[in-house]
Design brief:
Blueprint lengths: L25 E2 L2 E2 L23 H12 L5 H10 L10 H10 L4 H9 L2 H12 L11 H17 L8 E5 L7 H10 L5 H17 L15 E4 L15 E5 H9 L5 H19 L8 H21 L8 H12 L15 H20 L6 H15 L6
Parallel strand pairs: 3-5
Antiparallel strand pairs: 1-2, 4-5
Helix pairs in contact: 2-3, 5-7, 6-10, 7-8, 10-11, 11-13, 11-14, 12-13, 13-14
Length: 391
């Protein structure tokens, strides 16, 4: 069974892509495995000489405690450092992420991978973010589109959703020492003295290393996810609401790839599908490991497309939605044995096509199917959706 408090990644024009999806990053045909000619004027100092004893173990424990998936940026960093371990075709998304990695020195990349900055900004959004706090406001260019889609999704699905918050996470918080310090104390469990010392290190590095752009490098926030505290430590998560969070880096990727229309709404639709699963307890199944994750991710693909194309949902053009989805499903997911496997490109497109067809059938009857009914129908269709398709 997948832990219902985990958050799912959401990359590309539509839905959550697997943490196993990113190929060895290429820019103009050159791998970004060892950026020997980095352009950073100032390189990040070594984390190993600045972090306290046991930092890596403590950070890993926090990730497990929160049920975090690796972010797409973290996967890209790991693959850039170990390119021979992966065999997936490069895509435009790979090239975009590679363009962000290319100017970085090994120390810059090590800071991103082991310094905890990406986990700090994510934890800040989960524990302290709010849809009423202007520090977590969605970027103006996306605010109306996302909030309207969120409102429509809440009206569409028959689950409790009044307590879900929609807000952003901004990498710029990494230059705010008090905010970094409070994350280190509450989430990482360090005392005030040590938290203050390490917060000073993190904020100084982010503010003074040019390639990090004062926290605005998209790699810090290249993620979007659904989150629920249900089933987690009530003391740790006291006051934390169900959330749907968009990172600035995710929205930057949409813009860079020319996918600013359907993409944000489709990602939100997929992530809202996970909230439907949270409320309906749909993470419970006889499946385990990669097969369990694939089921819930493909179901969220189907639910998202059902909402996007239904006449009482967003009523978007089916062909337009599926074309946008296909352009990103071509990124691929080669992590067949990874517990976070999200399905192959063909499987994901099949799941979305199934959702669109269900919407067309349901709207002929003039109603929205109950979410549990959609889930049951999807589970019946799942064997055909994941059937082998190699030619």
């Amino acid at each position: 069974m997948i832990n219902p408090a985990r958050w799912s990644l959401a990359l590309g024009a539509t839905f959550a892509l697997s943490v196993g999806m990113l190929a060895p990053a290429l820019v103009a045909g050159d791998a970004v495995a060892a950026p020997a000619a980095a352009t950073s004027v100032v390189s990040a100092p070594s984390v190993s000489t600045s972090a306290p004893s046991g930092w890596n173990a403590r950070a890993a424990a926090v990730v497990r405690k929160l049920g975090l998936d690796r972010s797409p940026a973290r996967v890209a960093l790991e693959r850039a450092l170990h390119p021979g371990d992966y065999d997936c075709a490069p895509t435009e998304l790979d090239r975009y992420i590679a363009s962000l990695l290319k100017p970085m020195t090994p120390d810059d990349m090590d800071f991103l991978l082991t310094g905890g900055a990406m986990d700090i900004v994510t934890a800040d959004a989960i524990f302290f973010g709010s849809d009423t706090d202007p520090r977590y406001a969605l970027p103006a260019g996306y605010r109306t589109k996302l909030t309207h889609t969120f409102r429509d999704a809440k009206r569409f699905w028959d689950v409790k959703s009044s307590d879900i918050e929609l807000h952003a996470m901004h990498g710029s918080m990494l230059t705010d020492r008090p905010r970094v310090e409070r994350v280190l104390m509450r989430v990482f469990g360090f005392d005030r003295e040590w938290a203050a010392e390490y917060a000073e290190f993190v904020t100084r590095v982010v503010a003074t290393t040019p390639v990090f752009r004062h926290g605005n490098n998209p790699l810090f926030t290249l993620n979007a996810f659904a989150f629920t505290p249900e089933g987690k430590d009530p003391k740790l998560f006291a006051g934390v609401q169900d959330k749907l969070i968009f990172g600035d880096g995710m929205l930057d990727a949409f813009s860079a790839l020319g996918m600013t229309d359907v993409a944000p709404r489709a990602v939100l639709a997929h992530e809202f599908g996970h909230h439907v699963q949270f409320e309906d307890n749909l993470f419970d199944s006889p499946l385990t490991g990669a097969e369990a994750t694939r089921r819930t991710e493909l179901m969220a693909d189907a639910m998202g497309t059902y909402f996007l194309t239904h006449s009482r949902g967003l009523s978007l053009n089916t062909r337009r939605v599926l074309e946008a989805e296909k352009s990103f499903y071509e990124v691929g997911d080669c992590a067949f044995d990874d517990p976070n496997h999200h399905g192959t490109p063909h499987q994901r497109l099949r799941a979305s096509t199934w959702g669109a067809r269900l919407a067309m059938s349901a709207q002929k009857q003039g109603h929205i199917l109950p979410s549990l009914r959609v889930a049951r129908l999807f589970d019946n269709a799942l064997p055909a959706i994941v059937a082998p398709d190699a030619s």
